[in-house]
Amino acid sequence: MVKNRSITQICVVVHDVKQANANWSKVLGMPEAKIETIFPDGILHYTHGKSAEYKDCQVAKYQLDGFVLELIQPGETPSPWRTFLEKNGQGVFHFCLLVDDRKVFQQTLSEIGVGLPYHIGYFPGGSYSYVDAKEQLGLELSVNHQGDYGELFAALLSETAVPLAELK
């Protein structure tokens, strides 16, 4: 069983990140968070097994005690966040869980009926993925792992590896 697990982020998908940011700033009693366009270069994204690129999302992040509140306004192009917004409207998209062993944690998810991630992002220092755990946990779950993904990242770039193979 994985020992180290912690919720590190709550992500809320919004229609208008500027307005949501101003509102959260007032509610939290903090200065407005900087709004940035994401994602930076150096991340490989795959949704439903196909390579994808997301560069038009706007995000504001608040560092709170023990976790980050992330407000994300999806761009107009297809993305997991755009799909969520169109299907559900504004709301909590995911809780992010940091794990120390992705494969073992995926086995734990399988035991409660959660399938493999439908979306995954890799970078040399780790990965994040989204699993549909609405039936089992009441929400999407983002599973993050920090580690040396340099070899896997290079293999994905050269197409000698396929996404999610490391979890099977």
Brief overview:
This protein has 168 residues and is an alpha+beta fold. The chain has 5 helices and 10 strands. The protein has a 10-stranded mixed sheet.
What features would you describe in this structure?
With 168 residues, this protein is an alpha+beta fold. It has one domain: 2,3-Dihydroxybiphenyl 1,2-Dioxygenase, domain 1 (Roll), CATH 3.10.180.10. 26% of the residues lie in helices and 39% in strands. It contains five helices and ten strands; from the N terminus they run E-H-E-E-E-E-E-H-E-H-E-E-H-E-H. The protein has helices at residues 17-28, 80-88, 102-111, 134-137, 150-157, and strands at 5-13, 35-38, 44-47, 50-52, 57-64, 67-73, 91-99, 119-123, 126-133, 139-146. A hairpin with a 2-residue loop joins strand 5 (57-64) and strand 6. The radius of gyration is 16 Å and the shape is globular.
